Structures are given as C-alpha cells and as structure tokens.
C-alpha cells in the first residue's frame, strides 16, 4: 500500500516547485477577458520579462493541476501566506518571503491589466486558459485588509462537468422520485441549500433534469445576478429602476402562456400571488429556490418572506430539495472495514444489512516513516488523490415530500420548525444523517465526513 513517493500537500505529483532553479515552466497561457487582443498580448510580453513571472505561473498551474478551485493569498509585512482549496479543504503551501510574494502579485496584476501599485482598493479581472486539455475561467480579486492585502483567485471549468443529479451524488431512487415531482403539474418545487454549498449548481442541474422538450419553460430574473443560460429555458430579465418593472415583465411572460415558471426568486408579494394564481387556476407548474440549511428551514423562510401568501404557497408545495457538500472517498485507495454490531446499532443500520463500510487511506505521519532501525524511508502515496484519501466532492441530499399530512403539519408548527422535522421523521423522511449513512454504506464517503457535515449544521 505504501512505497516510494512522498506526499506533496497541495500540488499535483511532478508539479514544478517555486524557487527551483532551471525549472521548465508549465504551458499555461493567460488570456485576459475584457480587454483587446493586442493590449493583452502586450501585457503578457511585458509580464514575462518580470522576475515574478515563474512564481506566478507555477502558483496558478499547480493549483489547477492539483484540483484546487480557490487560491487565497494573504500579504503582510513579513511575506505571503498561500493556500489552495481542494475538495472544500484549505491546504497551506510553504510561505513566500515578501519580495517573492510581491513579485508574483505584480505579475498577476500586470497580466490582467490591473494596477500593480494599488494595494488597498478592490481590483477584479478574469482570464481564460487551457490547461491539461481543459478550458478554464479564472477570476482574480484583490483588496486591502487590516493586515495588508488579500487575493482570492477562483478557478472554474468553462463548461460544467456536473450534468446530472446522479453526478451530484443523488441516489437513483431519489432521482426517480424527485424527477417525477419536478415534472408534475400544478405544484411548486422548492430547491434549496446553505450558502456556499453548491446551490447554484444544484439549481442548474435540477433544471437540466426537467422535461423541457414537451413543455415551455420561462424564467424571470434580475439581470444583475442572472443565471447561466440553460437550453430550452427562455430567460427574461428585469433591471430594477430601468425599463419594465418586474411586475410588468412578469405579465408579459404570462401572455406567452408558458407551462412552467422558473423563478430563482418570487421577487415580491405581487409576483408570488400571481404565481400562486397561475399554478392553482391555470394548471401551471413553478420552480423556485431559497438559501436555507435544510428542507424545513427552506419552507419556513419561504413562508416568512411571503407572509400574506404563506397558506396558499404551502397548499401548492409538492417537494423541497436541500443539499450539503461532502468529500468523496478516493475510489483508488479507499479501504473497507467490517463495522462492529455496536457501530451498526449506533448508526441505525439493522444487523446483517451492511457487511462493510469504507474509510480513507492516509500516509503515516513523518515520525512513523522509518524502518526497523529507525532510518527514514520514502513512501508511496495514491497517485489519484495524492495521499488525501478523498477525491472530489458530492452532495448529500434530503428530499422532503410535501403531501397533505405534511402541509397540515407545516401550517400547524410553522413557529416551531423542530416539530415539523420530528413529524417528517415519523413519516419516514430521511434527513442528512440518514442519507449520509446510506452514502457510507455504498462506499461513497466516510463516517468521518458525515460526522463533520452534521457537526457543521
């Protein structure tokens, strides 16, 4: 299981190292978005002549090659602390001294057409690149902070890699149930999730899973925070204070007689009331979303936002989906183990139902990397996950089906959400803990990850 290659905490194997002499720079070309081609080329030529260019390119390439989706750089008088976020966890790199860190930052700002001298005001830019045969879009943001300056670099693929509910981690049985409700008639489907836990992706994939080829889907969105285009969803926009008010834009949409109203937000009481009318009297269907920690919280927030329409909204709700992100076990190095009867009982799994669970494989700590004589030895780590034990993330979903009994419970216990949760559990609803244990039973994640997910509630 272990052999001859050392772990590199936040970079891919064989990645070029910052400060190494005669290093061959990775083939990463920066194509700044929003400025002319000639100007961009001039900036790149100038940037390549600067001493910080190798450090800047290696930082970016190692992050992309190592599966990071964020780079955080904190600059102070002493130097720069650099971290990569990989699978949702922040991993630290060796700190950069002040001259090296400043030189790399000057190059990044120069390449993007920003002001390298400005260290206080907020500066933002985007660039595109192709690396490892994948097209990426990278967002750069810098701003002054009390300790100095902070830089956040966000890394995303140009094309979505998660396309189905199954890709996100939803169980097949739940996919079938959810799609049935999603493609139903005369109901409201509520998609929800905590802030920073993948709600925009779940929203997009939910709409991709809907049957948009036999029904007409239209949306109404604030232009300032509009969602990416989705095939067969006709987007309509409003700009607050400019042109048609959202109410007028909504009425124009209704003249087209759409089948499904896609509402990232119900916007205000007028539009909420009109949506209720369309669903209940005109046989329309509606899909909306809400930032919330779980499905019950989403319902309570929806009702609290539209108090006058609360009862009618509850009557039309058919289901609420919510998710939390969790790390996937590396399929290459995860290790099975036989759970004890006591552990199964604690997890609520009937005896004999599950023969094995899985856990991550981690390289031993440095003090244990010695032979029988106490001499240091090198170890082999998993080439897929680079010794992290996990590879990628998935969502643990809960699906709250809002049937007639649940509607009554929501209205009865609207002021005490925990009572709604208790009622749902009595009806057989599976919450995050139960869904997380199911994910452990099929080897997707570990008990440690589920415990961490529940502890962060």
Short note summarizing the structure:
By secondary structure, the protein is α/β, with parallel strands linked by helices.
Write structural notes for this entry.
With 457 residues, the protein is α/β, with parallel strands linked by helices. The protein has two domains: 31-157, Beta-Lactamase, CATH 3.30.450; 165-327 and 393-455, 3-Layer(aba) Sandwich (Rossmann fold), CATH 3.40.50. The chain is 33% helix and 25% strand. The chain contains 15 helices and 17 strands. It is globular, with a radius of gyration of 26 Å. Residues 1-10 have low confidence and may be disordered.
Chain-wise SSE layout:
Layout lengths: L30 E3 L3 H12 L4 H13 L2 E8 L3 E8 L2 E4 L3 E2 H14 L11 E9 L2 E12 L2 E10 L7 H4 L3 H11 L5 E6 L5 H11 L7 E6 L10 E6 L7 H9 L5 E4 L5 H13 L3 E7 L3 H11 L4 H7 E13 L5 E3 L3 H7 L9 E3 L30 E12 L2 H9 L4 H10 L5 H10 L5 H9 L2
Parallel strand pairs: 9-13, 9-14, 10-11, 10-12, 12-13
Antiparallel strand pairs: 1-6, 2-3, 2-8, 3-4, 3-5, 6-7, 7-8, 14-17, 15-16
